[in-house]
Amino acid sequence: MTTSHTDKIDVLLSTDVGAEMDDQWAIAHLTLQPRIHLLGIVTTHTPYLTAQRSAEIAREVLSHLPIAQKPPVIPGSSTPLESRDQPHRNEGIDFIIETARRYSSHRPLILLTIGAATDAASALLHDPSLTERVRVVSMAFHSVEGGGREFNVQNDPKAWQVILDAPVALTIGPAVTCIRDLTMSLEQAQSLLADCGEAGEYLVGLLRWWLNARPETVQGVTGRRDAWPIWDEIVTAHLLGLTETETLPRPHLRDNLDLEFAPRDGHPRPTVKWIRAVRADALWQDLIHHLRHAYEGEHNRQGG
Predict the structure, then answer these.
(1) pTM here?
(2) What number of H helices and E strands is found in the chain?
């Protein structure tokens, strides 16, 4: 996705914020980036986190940002789909549907999923016309070869079967790209986010907490204990034109989480874009710039 500096991108975010610490970074960046109009945040589930608890954490993130207008936060689903033909219905899904109905194929809404895709899939099932009104950009899947053996997909594989079968434009940011391009050490975060005010300290503190809380997990993913991928910033990078993509045939997701690249004869959107690289330096510089700008603006408003 490429945009000019004058384009305004209308976005809805579906997130399981609180499962780790990277959703918080993405929420901060999406909220502060002036080219992105974050219309709302719909929270979703993990095996140990309800949508309601996730909504509380999302509001906590927003409270640390020096902004006057905060996007609404609406709880979505707290459980995965039981079957592909029985979508959930709740306030979060209704928010997605009603918001998306204001858009069209000529001016689509960007629906970001950085958690379980339950609410996005349910919205598409309730209103199939949304496939023409939205474009889905997701942090999901391990890789083309590794399929759905990744946290977000494992939390609702049926939802991903729905999305892959639906005629909706789809871009996927897989885990392998995040690990290679978006792994952040604590030392790097402290250096980059210095002079970024309370919000910068908050984001650094989240990374420090995660590294201390889950050292074995961190070691297993990155091979070191002082760094972790800021996974969900891959969707922000894509919105800002800071990614390279590869277009591949649209796969099926099998029940064993393998991807099957069988022919999609007659499918209106027979391909999917996969994010293969992120310009991480440019992404972090963008985050730093807007954190500092927001902090300085708040400081000036307070007469400091």
Answers:
(1) 0.95
(2) 13, 12
**pLDDT digits over 125-143, tens only?**
999 999 999 999 999 999 9
Instruction: Give the tokens for residue 296.
Output: 């300085």
> Which domains are present in the chain?
9-185+232-278 (3.90.245.10)
Q: d(Cα 44, Cα 225) in Å, to the nearest integer?
A: 28
Task: Report how far residue 23's alpha carbon sits from residue 42's, in angstroms, rounded to the nearest whole number.
Answer: 12
Strand, helix or coil at 285? helix
d(CA 55, CA 255): 30
Query: What integer pLDDT is reported at residue 4 of this predicted model?
Result: 44
CA–CA gap between residue 70 and residue 73 (Å, rounded): 9
191-214 pLDDT, tens digit each: 999 999 999 999 999 999 999 999
Using an 8 Å Cβ cutoff, are 258 and 147 in contact?
yes
Rounded to 5 degrees, what are φ and ψ at 182? Answer: -120, 15
What pLDDT is stored for residue 2 in this prediction? 47
Short-list 15, 20, 23, CA closest to 42 = 15
The per-residue pLDDT for 299 is 52
Q: Which token pair is 64?
A: 């640390």
Give me the helices (H) in 33-109, please.
51-63, 91-100
- Token pair belonging to 263: 């022919």
Q: Which of 259, 238, 14 is nearest to 123 (CA)?
A: 14
Q: Which class for 155: exposed (0-12), middle (13-18), buried (19 or more C-beta within 10 A)?
A: buried
Regions of the chain with pLDDT less than 70? 1-6, 297-304
Considering only CA atoms, which of 199, 204, 165, 169 is closest in space to residue 188? 204
Q: CA–CA separation, 2 vs 259, rounded Å?
A: 28
Tokens (6 digits) for 62:
């927003």
How many residues can be counted in the chain?
Answer: 304
